[in-house]
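Input:
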Amino acid sequence: MKAAIAGGAYRIERQFAAGMEPVIRQIVRAALETSRLSLADIEMVVTVASDTLDGMMVPVRAELAGALGKNYLNVPSSAGHALSAAAAAIEAGDAKSVLVVGWGAASKLAHADGRANQFDPFYMRPVGATPELIAALQERVLASSGVLTEDDIASFEARMANIAREDAQGDALGAHGFCDGVAAIVLRRAADETSGAIIADHATASRSHNPLDGSFDPAGWVREALTGFASARPKKPLSQGFIEVSGPTSWAELRGIAGAVEAGYVDCSAASANSTGGGAAAWFGPATGIRALARLHGRMDRTTPDRGLFVDLAGPLGQHVTGMLIERSGA
Amino acid sequence: MTNSAGNSAVLGVAQLPMRTRLPETTYADLLGQAASKAVADAGLDLDQIDGLLLAQAPTTTLGVDEPQYWGIAGLPGADKFLGRVHVAAASGLTALRLAAAHVKSGRLRNVLIVAADLADEAASLRGALGAMHDPFTSGQAPINAITAAALQTSYYMATHKASERTMASVAVKNRGNGALNPFAQLRKPVTVDEVIESPVLSWPIRRLDSSPRTSGAAAIVVGRAGDVGPKRAVRIAGYGAFSGARSIGAQMVPGASSYLDGSDLTEAARRAYADADIADPTAEIGMAEVYASFGIFELLSIEGLGLCGSGEAAPRIAAGEFQRTAPLPVNPSGGATCGNPISASGLVRIAEAVTQLRGEAGERQVELKAPRAIVTATGGLFQTHEVGVLEA
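Output:
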């Protein structure tokens, strides 16, 4: 039994003035409303809350997300991992309905980037590794290898930033798009959901933070993830399909789109991809990708393409990839 | 949610000897050692692992946030990383649920779960764990794992008229069991007098009633029941979970007293038994490995799992029941009293139960009246509960 997206909601701001808790409750309620379900209908709750950007004890996270008395799972590593976990629970018959809630307060990274603490203490930290330095290195490698130009990045970044500003209701986000955010998705068994979008397939590919093969290009990891789909690759690329990639940087997202095109799943230009605004332009931690999927679901109607790809890139290099093949219900 | 565990099974297990300090070992070393042993135990090649879960929590003890970014390097299945699971000390069993879902859905064949802790990396483990608490409520009160367990213990003693000597019998049983367990950190048996005379941490919790600070690692492989020889695959017959309230104060009032009586665990067990088609756990279960970082956790677990009535566990242990040689042994490994690497503690419970169900526990092997074992894990301050039923 495949999983379907029944509803979703999200909110991003430069910084939540009243803190995270009331926003989490608001977004959970909103996601349930769009799915026409109540919390009592939910059998399992999955949260995505990064240790670095959260600081909450596990039972606090669980209750805020609505998990009291339910099956609960916290998958802090990425939105894609959490969404895969939720989809697998439905496919396995463990739950009929799953609420996935993610949040993060990246506004706290404005002055001191605590994510430097993520790096290997024996090699990376002594040489001054920070997420910004690693990202700059990755950009340099991709640019010097000729797969990206500064013009590519600039135009793509500008379009993503416009969408992020629209989502933040004009609020100017922080440096590097850092913001506070909460996003939620409700998954149900496809047989119980007639108006949602079906997760037709999903698969992952990963590298450690220091890729052993020396590659820094997310395109290859995306190609690899998509080969993990159980279903056969379409005979022709989805020329009318959509491709939405959420990643830590705009160039990682661009290379993610390129990877999906190279894998033969979609046939599109960067200019027509990422109608959701991706993740880098409004980044609130590993949960960021849920916003893209929630926005995509909210905009899916009879006028949008029947099928497409959602790709989540997590980690400093975007090296933890989750690919999802999304189909509109009844398509 | 009937028989949700379906055809999934534990194919391989491994644990490393638990120690207070492992000064020449990195976190990544521990994960790698446990992983390769578990895969070998399953009789698989490393490249047959097609999914990897890291059950790691809390990260405070490591000094590394988001440890997946370097901890998975070189591990089997790392190229198909499924994510890190963090439900505190319950992580091992929540990861089991997740791995079983991936296997049952048909998407993956063999999922490796690994966890490790280097508790000595934090200057003060109690301080590090205290940092997890809500700064606006629990953080303002003298609440930590020990004082919270003391509250439960004193309530149990007052309600059930249990003496300190009776309560001490839990630690005596477990330390005796741990003496036979080569993986245990504490392998010296203790007496009731020694428990009672050990320093008070927060009355009535004493040092010998509390789990030690532990470094260690464990790993398991979850796959399909038919994929290894029938004697070695241990079927995941069922599981149940219950996520409790954010504040233990909310669980100490009339009508919502689960922090004091273990009723949230009872609900998780009810779900697991329904999943595994178990009607009478006292007759159908052969042994239990329960997460008990303090003696009170074991008492509430035995009662919450329906293995005896409310208030009966302490006197029955003192009278010789639930011992290693009894018909329904609980924590024949010695439990967390003899070693508690927090992240790996759930996987250790699974590894011990699987080893017993296979009949491979050597000197600590128990006689099983039924080929089923219960494993439990608990997150937070006895707040989030996971119960699994394993079957040989």
